[in-house]
Amino acid sequence: MEFCFCTISSKTRLYQCLALYYSLLEKLDNIKFFVLCMDTDTYSIMSVLQSESLIPIRLESMENEVLLDIKRKRDISEYCWTMKPVLIDNLLESYPDITRLTYLDADIFFFSNPKGIYTFGFGKSVWLTPHNYNENIKYVEKEVGKYNSGFISFKNNKHGLECLSWWKNNCLDWCYNTTVGGKFGDQKYLDEFEGRFYGVTDIRVPGVNVAPWNDEGLLFSNRNEKIIVNGYKLICYHFCGFKILNEAEFMVQFGNKCNETIHRPYMLAVSRALNTVRQIEPAFNGCYEKEPESDRFQVFHI
User: Virtual CA dihedral for 145, 149, 153, 158, nearest 10 degrees?
Assistant: First the structure.
C-alpha cells in the first residue's frame, strides 16, 4: 500500500516541512510526499532532495489567471489556505493511481506509525480532524470551526471528489483571515461537509493531531522510546506557534507551553533538517524569526 501526502511550504516553513517528511519516511515503508513550494528558495532546495518519495512542485506550474488574480487580493497566508484544495484536486487529477491523498500542515510531526488511521477510516471518502478544543478556549469553535484544516484526507472516488470540488470552489470565491460573515479562511467550510456529502467521518483515533489547542491536562510520557499521551501512542502533534529564532534557539507563541517530552525530539528533528539544508545552501536562513515584542512566547534551546 502506498501512502500519499501533500503539504504547502514557503521558506519560513522549510525546516519544519522536512522534519515532517522525514518523520513519515521513518514510520512508513512506502510514501509519496508532494510539496507545493511557495517560493524559488524552497523549490530550489527541495529539488536537490527530490526522490521517488519527495516530489516538489513549482507554484507557477499550478497557477492560472484566476489564481493569479486571487493572489493579488489575498495575503500569503490566505493564498496558502486557498491553495490547499487546489493542490489536492490537482494531484488527484494528475496522479489517477492515487487512491487517497492526505493534506498535512508543514508544522505537524509524526511520533508513531499512522496506519491505524487508515484502518479506522477504511471505506470513508473524507476524513476530518476535530479540534477538540480545551475547555478554556472552546468558545472559538463557533468562529473558526469545529475542524482543523491542517489534517484532512480525500479518497479519489466520486464522493471524495464532489466534496473536494465544493470546498475548492468556495475557497476560490472567499478565503480570508477573518470571521466576518460566519466564515473563516478555508476552515469553517469543513463544518458543512457531513451535512452535504456522503462518506465523511471524524478521525477518532487516539493520539492524532494533538495540539496546543487541545492538550490541556493531557499526560505525556516517554515509554520504551515511544511518546505516550494519556495511555495511547502519540501518532502526530501539531506544533502550532513553533518558531525558529536561530540554529540553536526556538520559541513557542500565543501562550503555548513547552513540553520537554515532545518538544525536545521535535527540536532535534528540526535541527537535523536545518543541517541538511545548510549542506545544500549554506547561506539559507529563510526560516529565522525575530523575537516578538509581545510577552506571549517562550524561548528554549536544543
Answer: 60
